[in-house]
Amino acid sequence: MIEYEARGGLWKLIFARKGSVIPKALVLAIPSAVLAAFLVIFDEMASRVRADVGISNTQSSIIWSTVSVPLISLIGYRTSQAVGRFWEGTSLLHAMRGEWFDSASCLATFSTRSRGQKPREVDQFRQTLLRLMSLCHGSALDEIKMEQKEFFEALDITGLD
Questions:
Q1: Tens of pLDDT along 4-40?
Q2: What is the torsion angle, in degrees rounded to the nearest 10, for the CA atoms of residue 71, residue 72, residue 74 and residue 78?
Q3: How far apart are CA 46 and CA 40, in angstroms?
Q4: Which of 58, 68, 95, 121 lies at a 20 to 30 A Cα distance from 140?
Q5: Cα–Cα separations (whole angstroms), residue 159 to 28, 132, 142, 155
Protein backbone atom coordinates (compact mmCIF):
# COMPACT_ATOMS: atom_id res chain seq x y z
CA MET A 1 0.00 0.00 0.00
CA ILE A 2 1.30 3.46 -0.85
CA GLU A 3 1.64 5.81 2.09
CA TYR A 4 0.69 9.40 1.20
CA GLU A 5 2.02 12.33 3.16
CA ALA A 6 0.07 15.57 3.59
CA ARG A 7 3.22 17.71 3.28
CA GLY A 8 4.03 19.39 -0.01
CA GLY A 9 0.54 20.16 -1.22
CA LEU A 10 -1.58 18.82 -4.03
CA TRP A 11 0.92 19.35 -6.86
CA LYS A 12 3.59 17.31 -5.11
CA LEU A 13 1.07 14.52 -4.60
CA ILE A 14 -0.07 14.61 -8.23
CA PHE A 15 3.45 14.60 -9.68
CA ALA A 16 4.93 12.15 -7.18
CA ARG A 17 6.99 9.42 -8.81
CA LYS A 18 5.66 6.66 -6.58
CA GLY A 19 2.01 5.86 -7.11
CA SER A 20 1.19 8.51 -9.71
CA VAL A 21 0.34 7.79 -13.33
CA ILE A 22 1.19 11.31 -14.49
CA PRO A 23 4.97 10.76 -14.98
CA LYS A 24 4.26 7.61 -17.01
CA ALA A 25 1.59 9.43 -19.01
CA LEU A 26 3.97 12.31 -19.73
CA VAL A 27 6.53 9.88 -21.13
CA LEU A 28 3.98 8.98 -23.80
CA ALA A 29 2.25 12.34 -24.17
CA ILE A 30 5.25 14.62 -24.72
CA PRO A 31 6.68 12.75 -27.74
CA SER A 32 3.17 12.49 -29.20
CA ALA A 33 2.63 16.24 -28.78
CA VAL A 34 5.97 17.00 -30.43
CA LEU A 35 5.09 14.69 -33.33
CA ALA A 36 1.66 16.33 -33.69
CA ALA A 37 3.22 19.81 -33.73
CA PHE A 38 5.71 18.64 -36.36
CA LEU A 39 2.89 17.23 -38.50
CA VAL A 40 0.90 20.49 -38.26
CA ILE A 41 3.93 22.51 -39.35
CA PHE A 42 4.62 20.02 -42.14
CA ASP A 43 0.96 20.20 -43.23
CA GLU A 44 1.15 23.97 -43.54
CA MET A 45 4.39 23.75 -45.51
CA ALA A 46 3.12 20.96 -47.75
CA SER A 47 0.04 22.79 -49.04
CA ARG A 48 1.88 23.60 -52.29
CA VAL A 49 2.86 19.94 -52.70
CA ARG A 50 -0.79 18.88 -52.30
CA ALA A 51 -1.83 21.42 -54.90
CA ASP A 52 0.80 20.11 -57.33
CA VAL A 53 -0.33 16.50 -56.79
CA GLY A 54 -3.98 17.46 -57.17
CA ILE A 55 -5.30 16.76 -53.67
CA SER A 56 -7.79 19.43 -52.60
CA ASN A 57 -8.86 20.24 -49.04
CA THR A 58 -12.09 18.25 -49.40
CA GLN A 59 -10.20 15.16 -50.52
CA SER A 60 -7.81 15.66 -47.61
CA SER A 61 -10.71 15.69 -45.12
CA ILE A 62 -12.15 12.53 -46.69
CA ILE A 63 -8.79 10.81 -46.30
CA TRP A 64 -8.58 12.03 -42.70
CA SER A 65 -12.07 10.69 -41.92
CA THR A 66 -11.30 7.38 -43.59
CA VAL A 67 -8.21 6.90 -41.46
CA SER A 68 -9.49 8.30 -38.15
CA VAL A 69 -12.85 6.48 -37.85
CA PRO A 70 -11.38 2.94 -37.76
CA LEU A 71 -8.56 4.12 -35.54
CA ILE A 72 -10.94 5.70 -33.02
CA SER A 73 -13.12 2.59 -33.11
CA LEU A 74 -10.14 0.35 -32.36
CA ILE A 75 -8.97 2.58 -29.52
CA GLY A 76 -12.48 2.61 -28.02
CA TYR A 77 -12.71 -1.19 -28.29
CA ARG A 78 -9.31 -1.72 -26.67
CA THR A 79 -10.14 0.70 -23.87
CA SER A 80 -13.44 -1.00 -23.11
CA GLN A 81 -11.69 -4.39 -23.08
CA ALA A 82 -9.04 -3.08 -20.67
CA VAL A 83 -11.63 -1.57 -18.34
CA GLY A 84 -13.65 -4.80 -18.40
CA ARG A 85 -10.57 -6.87 -17.53
CA PHE A 86 -9.67 -4.49 -14.71
CA TRP A 87 -13.11 -4.74 -13.11
CA GLU A 88 -13.19 -8.51 -13.57
CA GLY A 89 -9.83 -8.81 -11.80
CA THR A 90 -10.95 -6.49 -9.02
CA SER A 91 -14.17 -8.43 -8.47
CA LEU A 92 -12.24 -11.74 -8.43
CA LEU A 93 -9.85 -10.35 -5.80
CA HIS A 94 -12.78 -9.28 -3.64
CA ALA A 95 -14.42 -12.68 -4.13
CA MET A 96 -11.18 -14.39 -3.06
CA ARG A 97 -11.00 -12.21 0.04
CA GLY A 98 -14.62 -13.06 0.83
CA GLU A 99 -13.91 -16.79 0.44
CA TRP A 100 -10.97 -16.56 2.83
CA PHE A 101 -13.17 -14.71 5.32
CA ASP A 102 -16.01 -17.24 4.98
CA SER A 103 -13.75 -20.23 5.49
CA ALA A 104 -12.04 -18.64 8.52
CA SER A 105 -15.36 -17.66 10.10
CA CYS A 106 -16.82 -21.13 9.52
CA LEU A 107 -13.83 -22.81 11.14
CA ALA A 108 -14.00 -20.40 14.08
CA THR A 109 -17.73 -21.05 14.42
CA PHE A 110 -17.27 -24.84 14.34
CA SER A 111 -14.92 -24.58 17.31
CA THR A 112 -17.51 -22.78 19.47
CA ARG A 113 -18.88 -25.96 21.08
CA SER A 114 -15.42 -27.08 22.17
CA ARG A 115 -14.64 -23.75 23.78
CA GLY A 116 -16.34 -24.71 27.05
CA GLN A 117 -14.27 -27.89 27.40
CA LYS A 118 -10.90 -26.70 26.07
CA PRO A 119 -10.83 -22.87 26.09
CA ARG A 120 -7.05 -22.55 25.85
CA GLU A 121 -6.72 -24.94 22.90
CA VAL A 122 -9.64 -23.31 21.07
CA ASP A 123 -8.14 -19.83 21.51
CA GLN A 124 -4.80 -21.11 20.26
CA PHE A 125 -6.54 -22.79 17.29
CA ARG A 126 -8.39 -19.59 16.38
CA GLN A 127 -5.25 -17.45 16.63
CA THR A 128 -3.32 -19.93 14.49
CA LEU A 129 -6.21 -20.03 12.01
CA LEU A 130 -6.24 -16.22 11.67
CA ARG A 131 -2.48 -16.10 11.19
CA LEU A 132 -2.61 -18.82 8.53
CA MET A 133 -5.49 -17.14 6.68
CA SER A 134 -3.63 -13.83 6.79
CA LEU A 135 -0.53 -15.57 5.43
CA CYS A 136 -2.56 -17.29 2.66
CA HIS A 137 -4.17 -14.02 1.58
CA GLY A 138 -0.84 -12.19 1.61
CA SER A 139 0.74 -15.01 -0.39
CA ALA A 140 -2.04 -14.88 -2.98
CA LEU A 141 -1.66 -11.10 -3.33
CA ASP A 142 2.12 -11.52 -3.54
CA GLU A 143 1.68 -13.80 -6.57
CA ILE A 144 -0.13 -11.10 -8.57
CA LYS A 145 1.79 -8.01 -7.48
CA MET A 146 3.06 -5.66 -10.16
CA GLU A 147 6.23 -4.35 -8.52
CA GLN A 148 8.80 -6.35 -6.60
CA LYS A 149 8.96 -3.55 -4.01
CA GLU A 150 5.40 -4.22 -2.82
CA PHE A 151 5.15 -6.01 0.51
CA PHE A 152 2.03 -7.53 2.04
CA GLU A 153 2.04 -7.88 5.80
CA ALA A 154 0.64 -10.88 7.64
CA LEU A 155 -0.60 -11.10 11.21
CA ASP A 156 2.24 -11.95 13.62
CA ILE A 157 3.69 -14.98 11.85
CA THR A 158 6.18 -15.41 14.69
CA GLY A 159 3.25 -16.80 16.71
CA LEU A 160 3.15 -19.87 14.46
CA ASP A 161 5.09 -22.84 15.78
A1: 565 666 666 666 666 667 778 888 899 999 999 988 8
A2: 140
A3: 10
A4: 121
A5: 48, 10, 21, 9
